[in-house]
Amino acid sequence: MEIEVTHPFHPWRGQRFVLATRKRNWGEDRVMYFDAQGRLRSLPAAWTDIDPPDVRTQAAAGRAAFRSDDLLQLASLIDEISTQPSRGPRRVK
Fold first, then answer.
1. What percentage of the chain reaches a pLDDT higher than 70?
2. CATH classification of the domain holding 43
């Protein structure tokens, strides 16, 4: 199976590689492939076309920079941080 680099700012965007394996590595979903010199390389799976396009991304057609689920999670995190009591300034040694 071949994968294509789809990340808009990656220098290899549009290049195709033969997929060696896919696994969770360094805390994220990654695809492993061999480069032209035969070295094993990896990329985040989200930077490739290995998964079908997200339905919300397709429906937004480039008009939405963020997914609503992610924005709701961010709002919850901000709310949680803002309601915590302040401990005063932190000193760095």
1. 91
2. 2.30.30
